[in-house]
Structures are given as structure tokens and as C-alpha cells.
Amino acid sequence: MDAARARKLADRIQQVVAEMLERRIKDPRLGFVTVTDTRVTADLSDATVYYTVFGSEAERADSASALESAKGVIRSEVGRQTGLRHTPTLAFVHDPLPDNARHMDDLFALARAKDAEVAKQAEGAEFAGEADPYRFEDDLDAEAAEGEETAEGKDTAEEEPGDRAGHSVR
Fold first, then answer.
1. What φ, ψ does residue 33 adopt, rounded to 5°?
2. What's the CA angle centered on 23, arms 74 and 57, to 5 degrees?
3. Which of 4, 10, 119, 143 is the Cys-Cys partner for 40 at CB 3.0 to 4.6 Å?
4. Distance between start and end Cα atoms, the chain
């Protein structure tokens, strides 16, 4: 089947389900439910409706049971409004994305607090060595010039005996 058609059908099912939950389903167990996404298989036989519930775990469980009990009514309305010969079966799945996002926000806040603590400790700190420990081209040129001056001032007889690599033996 066509993937574009499946996406369009998924969008339409999402609208119908959200409208049904808002207006027609009067189950007292149904909490503040938001339909976040809907996915339809390529053969248009199954639809997965993702939802979130604002509230506690108990309210989430009550809303899940209310959605399961209203599944038949919602499916018949989806079939009526979409005009399909075979209405897809509906599966309601709690969407963990908002919970994950909330957890990530908490972790970011903790990281910002730790960064602020480290920055506060580093305010009056000084470097253990030099401020810039890296060697630059100018430094290498100066060291090379110093090495040439000391080599010119030495007599070859004063040199220490060395090994084959040219290093002095101590």
C-alpha cells in the first residue's frame, strides 16, 4: 500500500479519536487524555494510538481501562468517518515521550546546578603551572637558538662520551 495514504489515514484517525474522547466518551475513569500520535500499518489493518494522561499512575491506569472498554465505539466511529471498507483495529498505547522529556529536563537542571557549583569553585583559582602549557612556534625557535649558542661555546674534547644514538651516558 501507499505510505502517504497510511499517514493521511493516521492523521484522520488521530483527529477522530481525539474528538471522540473529548465529546462522546463519558466514562468517569477517563482522565485528562491527550492523543499524541497515531501510526497505521502499511496494509491499513492496524492502527496504534499513542496517548498521554495528565495525573498520577492510578489515573493513568484508570484511563487505560476506560480506553479499552470504549475501543469498540471509537473503532465504529473511525470506520464511519473514514469511509474505509475494512476499519483498522485500534490499539491504545501510553506514550512515554512526555515522561522521558520531563526526566531529561530534570537531568539538565541537575547538570546546570553542578556546572554553577564548579564555576563558583573556580572563581578564585589559579593555574597549577603556567596559564598556557602548550608550546608554540616562537618558543621552539627560542629554544633552538639557545641550544646553538651553548653548542658553539663547548669544546669537542669536553663532550661526554655517548651511546650510538648520540645521547650521553650517565
1. -100, 135
2. 75
3. 10
4. 83
